[in-house]
Structures are given as structure tokens and as C-alpha cells.
Amino acid sequence: MALLPNIERRSFLKVAGLGGAAALAGCTEDSANAASTTAAQTSDESGAASVDVDRVAADPTDVPDPVDWNQPRTHDITMETKEVTAEIEPGVTFDYMTFDGRVPGPMVRVRRGDTVNLTLRNPEGSDMPHNIDFHAVYGPGGGANATTIAPGEEATIEFKATYPGSHIYHCAVPNMDQHISAGMFGAILVEPKDGLPEVDKELYFGQHELYTDKETGEEGHHKWSVEAAKSEDPTYMAFNGEAYAFTEDGYGRVPIEQGETVRVFLSNGGPNLSSSWHAIGNVWDRLYRDGDLVSDPARFVETTPVEPGTVTAAEIETPVPGPIKIVDHSLTRVARKGLLGVLDVQGEQNPEIYDPDPDGDSGGE
User: Fold this and answer.
1) CA–CA separation, 205 vs 264, rounded Å?
2) Residues placed in the known binding site
3) Which residues make up each annotated binding site for Cu cation?
4) What is the pLDDT of residue 46?
5) For the purposes of burial, counting CB atoms within 10 Å of the CB of 241, is it exposed (0-12), middle (13-18) or buried (19 or more)?
6) Before 271, cis peptide (omega within 30)?
């Protein structure tokens, strides 16, 4: 599917109508003992590093097509670990660790009973060992034991998708909190044998915390901070690795046509904090709690917990045009830490459901 427009990024202080200063207290501990990848070269007076890629934020519309087969299949899948330097927000750089260069890593989509042959590659230029733990795998470490590889190595495992649901995968080396925080997590969707209800559009987001040695909004190159992680005091919280990536000040709002039914997957990589997942101006019309795709979904849920290490799915209806803000309802994370994505429902006003100007004085938005 097509990527969203990569428009010029402006200051995230003006995001989506939310005010508030960005340069608020984050973590200022001395980073001498912090675990970090090889120091990046600074590129300007701000101290920010030269970036390897323009973006790490995965396109939320990049979702594999629904299952359309009714007999078991075998899927050959290769993933590559990629360590890259990129911006959390303009002027703030960080050394990310990723699967296939994006946060979250690519969604794997199969049917219950399918077999997956997974090859994980760690390029020679990497600084770290990596592996992968699939929560959809019966086996030691969810496959992590057999896929632990040093730079320049690769490993292959085979597993059968025996139980349905939306499940997380993540790196699970001993410093797993660092690797997950730096971006190494994703989702595997195992559809029930009868499939999922048809919808008009599907979206895929990943929420996680970035623990660094500088304050939120402080320009320069941010290094991983083990002290901030131990305190569970993130400098940033983000959807798809970057602050306010899917807003008018990032890569743009995600366009939705009025009347579309939209299924949204949220993979909470954590590594530590639960999400109070909420859609401002909407509800989760059908909620598949904790990625349970076989029980009857909950209905009309306003806010739902998504624990770290969980992929939750939910569907919304879109009868009214305008923005739907996807947030964690721990709202300081939205106003101060970067955790906001906006869906832009495009269409005609529907005053039978919502009239922004019933007296006709201001003409509405």
C-alpha cells in the first residue's frame, strides 16, 4: 500500500490543537553508565547526529491483505535487523534498533494452521546481537533461543500457527528493554480459520517508550539511558517511533473516507508501561480485548487497557467528518511526550449525528 505523504515536518509544539511546552522534565541523569550503541557523529551545532534514514516510523496503512485461503499454507519470511540513526522529532536524533528498518516491524499475517519458515538476519555492520520472540510460537523463548545471532549471522526457525489472535513479537536478548524501547517489536496476526469480518480499511500502530539521557524536546543526539528505564520515566512516548508522526506537523494525518469501517491494531511494545487506548471523538465499536479474535468482541468501549507485550485490535465507524485523535488517555503522554496520531475522516457534515453549529451562527468547521 502507498506510503503517506512525507511532508516537511514542522515544530511538534503546535500539534493537532494541543498546546503545552515540549521541553519539560524528562531524564537528566549522567549517562556514563547508560547502555548505548556506538556514538553517532554529530552533524550540526545542536549536537544532533547525522541520520541514516529520513524516517523510522512505519506507514500505519502498510498492513498485509486479509487471509483469502482456506487450506494450510507455508510462508517463507525473512526479516533483517537494522540499527539506524534517525530523528525522534526535528533536531533530536536517536540510535534505533529495528526489524526491517521500521517501527514497529512488519506485520506478519497468516491463518491458523499455517506453517511459517522464518529467517532472521543480522548484518555484519551491526553493533549488537539480536533475536526474535514470537508470542504466537510454542517453543523456547517463542523462538528467541534458536534465533539469537551475532552481527553477520542468520538463523531459521519453523513453527506452526496453532492458536489464533493478534500477538506481539520482539527482540529478547538480555538487554531486551533497550532493544524493544529502541524499536524492536511488531505484530503477528493469526486469523481464525473462518477469517475476520470484512472492513474497509486496516491500520497498524506500535506504541513504545524511549528512555534517553536528555530532556524531552532538548535538541541533540539522545542516547539510551538505563537509569531512566529503571525509573520507568520515558523521555518520549510514541506511535511508530517518532513524536507526533501522524499529525499535520509530521507525515500527515491518516486519511479515512466518511462511512468507512476501520480496524486498528495497536502493538504495545512497552517495554514497561500500559496504554489507556482511546479514540477522541469516537469509541471502539467492536473491541477484541488483548488480541482475542475468537470471542465475541466487546461493544462501544470508550477506553481500553493495552498491556506491554500485547496487540489489541478494535474497529470504529466513521459517520462524521473531522479528526479522530488516537491517544493514550494518560494524557500527559499526549501533550508532553509525543503520543498522538490523527485519523482524518473526509466527507460531508452529518447534522443528524453531530451538528457543530446548530444555530447557524459560525458556519461550523
Assistant:
1) 8
2) 130, 135, 170-171, 179, 184, 329
3) 130, 135, 170-171, 179, 184, 329
4) 73
5) buried
6) yes
CATH of 48-191, one of 2.170.150.20, 2.60.40.420, 3.20.20.140, 2.120.10.30: 2.60.40.420
Give residues with Cβ within 8 angstroms of 122, minimum separation 6: 80, 81, 129, 130, 149, 150, 151, 152, 153, 154
Task: Tell me, yes or no, if the pTM score tops 0.85.
Answer: yes
- Pick from 357, 361, 94: which is nearest to 216 by CA? 94
Q: How far apart are CA 362 and CA 359, in angstroms?
A: 8
Residue from 245, 221, 168, 187 nearest 40 by CA: 221
Pick the CATH number of 201-346 from 2.60.40.420, 3.40.50.1240, 1.10.10.10, 3.30.43.10: 2.60.40.420
User: What does the alpha-carbon distance between residue 234 and residue 211 come to, in Å, rounded to a whole number?
Assistant: 5
Please tell me which residue, 23 or 114, carries the higher pLDDT value: 114
Same fold, 48-191 and 201-346: yes
Instruction: Say how many C-beta atoms besides its own lie within 10 A of residue 47's C-beta.
Output: 16
**pLDDT tens-digit map of 202-257:** 999 999 999 999 999 999 999 999 999 999 999 999 999 999 999 998 999 999 99
pLDDT tens digits, 143-184: 999 999 999 999 999 999 999 999 999 999 999 999 999 999
Domain ranges of the chain: 48-191, 201-346
Residues 6+ apart with CB under 8 A from 354: 320
Lookup result for grid cell 507526533:
244
The conformation of residue 57, written as its DSSP 8-state character, comes to B
Distance CA 209, CA 178 (A): 10
**pLDDT of 45:** 64
- Is the pLDDT at 20 greater than 70? The verdict is no
What pLDDT, on the 0 to 100 scale, is given for residue 37?
41
- Tell me the average pLDDT across 21-46: 40
Assess whether pLDDT exceeds 80 at residue 1: no
pLDDT of res. 348: 96
Q: How many whole angstroms from its chain centre is CA 262?
A: 17
Residue 281 Ramachandran class (φ > 0 left, ψ -120 to 50 alpha, else beta) = left
